[in-house]
TrEMBL record:
Name of the protein: SH2 domain-containing protein 1A-like protein
Gene3D superfamilies linked to this entry: SH2 domain (3.30.505.10)
BP term (GO), one: adaptive immune response
Top-level taxon of origin: Eukaryota
Record-linked PANTHER family: INOSITOL POLYPHOSPHATE-RELATED PHOSPHATASE DOMAIN-CONTAINING PROTEIN (PTHR46051:SF1), SH2 DOMAIN-CONTAINING PROTEIN (PTHR46051)
Residue intervals of the SH2 domain: 5-101
Keyword entries, A-Z: Adaptive immunity, Immunity, Innate immunity, SH2 domain
Lineage: Eukaryota, Metazoa, Chordata, Craniata, Vertebrata
Classification via SUPFAM superfamilies: SH2 domain
Pfam families, A to Z: SH2
Length: 115
């Protein structure tokens, strides 16, 4: 998938800088997890802090996000569906996804197979 918010193999600090630069609550991007190969991080800016949620594939090839405790686990066939769902309020994230931080460098190839 050529998803515009996927930034590939950037570290946490770089992701946080990109989000802070936007300065808007609800700004978000996806990057590779530094600690878990094959897992991604959905990073969201809210009140000056960056919240990070793990995004991974299930054995059935669905996508899921690690959200707040007590929130029902949801499965999505495509990453774009996952993003659409979390653009709504009260879905288990600190804030709804509102402002995509677009990858200007084109490091989107790892998610290409999951369109």
């Amino acid at each position: 998938m050529d998803h515009p918010v996927y930034h590939g193999n950037i570290n946490r600090e770089t992701g946080e800088k990109l989000l802070s630069k936007s300065g808007k609550d609800g700004s978000y991007l996806i990057r590779d997890s530094e600690s878990r190969p094959g897992v991604y991080c959905l990073c969201v800016l809210y009140q000056g802090l960056v919240y990070t949620y793990r995004v991974s594939r299930t054995a059935q090839s669905s996508w899921t996000v690690e959200t707040a405790p007590g929130v029902t686990k949801r499965l999505f066939r495509k990453v774009k569906n996952l993003i659409s769902a979390y653009q709504k309020e009260d879905q288990g994230l600190a804030v709804a996804l509102q402002y995509p931080v677009i990858n200007q460098k084109g490091n989107q190839s790892l998610l290409h197979q999951y369109e």
